[in-house]
Sequence to fold (429 residues):
Amino acid sequence: MNLRFEGARIVGIQLVLPRREITFDSEIDDYSFTPQQSAKLKQVMGYDRRRVVKDGVTSSDLVVEGIKALRESGQLDPESLDALIVVTQTPDYLIPGTSYIIHNKLGLHQDMLCLDINQGCAGFIVGLTTAFSLLNQRGFKRVALVNVDVVSRLVAEGDRNSRPIIGDAAAITIVESSHLTEPIYGNLKVDGARWDALMIPAGGMKIRPSAETAVSVADTNGNTRALDNLIMKGDAVFNFVMQEVPSMIEALMHDNNFDLSSVDSFLFHQPNPFMLRKLASKLGVPLEKMPIDLVRKYGNSSGVTIPAVLCTEFDVSYFRDPKWICMAGFGVGLTWGSLLMQISDLSFVNVMEI
Amino acid sequence: MKNILVEIIQSIRPEIQFDTDQDTDLFGLLDSLDIILLVEEIEKQIGVCIDADQIVPENFASLLTLEAFVSSQSK
Fold:
């Protein structure tokens, strides 16, 4: 579906990274790679360093520290928020939603909406789309969009496909109504038929966690996982991204009469450098306009990667003059979506470590 | 071409055995990581460029289909 929003702008973004860094070299004995394969994977896939939380740290822990820092620096008055949207696949509890935990820990006021969305790698696009939709209502003037995941706690130690790139992070994006902005264009697609391409089988109501679901089983490709762990059908996800993302971006440009060359920066979800290089090549986008190496430095933090790229590659000075930004998210669902919007005059672009 | 491809595949998955007289089914033997490494090596060693939408199972189903695909790219 095609989207168009007016009267909304991003005010600022705060990225929260765990201070704990894990290197691929330190875990290499956990996987069944030959030394030659390991060297190639480091180069091609970006298996190198990733940030992960310590045992026991939850999604709300990252977010609360991030919003507290914004409050203490005077960059955000939490009392001004009309909504808190939390997009995560790793909630603190099944019930209630993590937004309520954050609301409590921060002592936020009662005259607001708390909303939880279960989304992963398309979570920044889905979250912004929801925030922009709320801002079309008169009662909503300022929304905090939170993207957070601590998926490292759910990845099997012997999962050679996923674990070497999985990182944890949170991003707090403040969005508010504005009369001074260009329209925001977007599109969003879902294919529920491929729901099991990315999943954690146990833990919900269908399969309750038990001693049996914790038993690890090896697959034919050298991965060892339990039903309690993240399972990614790598082939299916890879084919999905290569098939759907280029045409999605081409449609976004075509349907809105926008020239790809007029985009200043392409901020895509960061699965790995290889896939991003292929997407850039297919679209004819120069790599100077598309950061591809977030995974190598911080890991793939699901729905946080787009704001993470923005915060680690740019600062407020880049956005002093308006910039056309094309964002794309793709993953669990399967879901794929993109936004084309002008970003300018950001109040803050922060990176903090906890 | 076939020999180069066999060498590349065996550098990634040494356990895969090839019969010189017959096609070798690759479907199910190579996972997505293997395909990525394979594409990188083919591009580097054979000098072809493989587009995003060409990295599909049909092109990597067997040694013969892969050979035909890479040959078509190098023309």
Q: What stands out?
A: DSSP finds three helices and no strands in chain B. Chain B touches chain A through 20 residues (CB under 8 Å).
